[in-house]
């Protein structure tokens, strides 16, 4: 079983950048497909990005493609979400999640596929 702790959230001006971290413990993140989701006030939790913990495959929501990058550092057992060119609509609580292998990639775009979640970190983009 893996435990996940997010950090790196904060307040940033539109057009700025932030890097979120997701520190894994208990098991290495390479044992999982890792995802980032976000939840804006009054809305459901939406897919942002995902990657195979083994490396190679990544997926992004259309709204962040080209601006956000998901990556991992096996030595630190940490997954990152680099967020550039931030927009007001990126304001949300961001969650890191882990899911076991074996599903089609389309399933990893859904929060229901993920078994383990962090507590979330707030990102606020100001004008």
Topology, pairings included?
Elements: E1 3-7, E2 10-13, E3 18-25, E4 33-39, E5 45-52, E6 58-60, E7 68-73, E8 78-83, E9 92-99, E10 116-117, E11 121-126
Parallel strand pairs: 2-11
Antiparallel strand pairs: 1-3, 3-8, 4-5, 4-9, 5-6, 7-8, 9-10, 9-11
Order of helices and strands: EEEEEEEEEEE
Q: Cα-atom Rg, whole angstroms? A: 13 Å
Q: Which ranges are low-confidence, i.e. pLDDT below 50, for 5 or more consecutive residues?
A: none
**Structural shape:** globular
Structural class: mainly beta
Tell me what portion of residues adopts beta-strand conformation: over 45%
**Average pLDDT across residues?**
96
Find the count of extended strands (DSSP E, 2+ residues): 11
Main sheet characteristics: 7 strands, mixed
Distance between the termini: 40 Å
Helix content: under 10%
Could you explain how this protein is built, in words?
With 127 residues, the chain is mainly β. It is 0% helix and 50% strand. Strands 2, 4, 5, 6, 9, 10 and 11 form a seven-stranded mixed sheet that branches. Strands 1-3-8-7 form a four-stranded antiparallel sheet, with no helix packed on it. The mean pLDDT is 96.
């Amino acid at each position: 079983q893996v435990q996940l702790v997010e950090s790196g959230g904060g307040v940033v001006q539109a057009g700025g950048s932030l890097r979120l971290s997701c520190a894994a413990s208990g098991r290495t993140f390479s044992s999982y497909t890792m995802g980032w989701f976000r939840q804006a006030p009054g809305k459901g939790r939406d897919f942002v990005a995902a990657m195979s913990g083994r490396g190679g495959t990544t997926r992004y929501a259309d709204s962040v493609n080209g601006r956000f990058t998901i990556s991992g550092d096996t030595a630190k057992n940490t997954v990152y979400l680099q967020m550039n060119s931030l927009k007001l609509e990126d304001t949300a609580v961001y969650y890191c999640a882990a899911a076991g292998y074996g599903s089609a990639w389309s399933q990893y775009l859904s929060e229901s596929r993920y078994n383990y979640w962090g507590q979330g970190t707030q990102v606020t983009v100001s004008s």
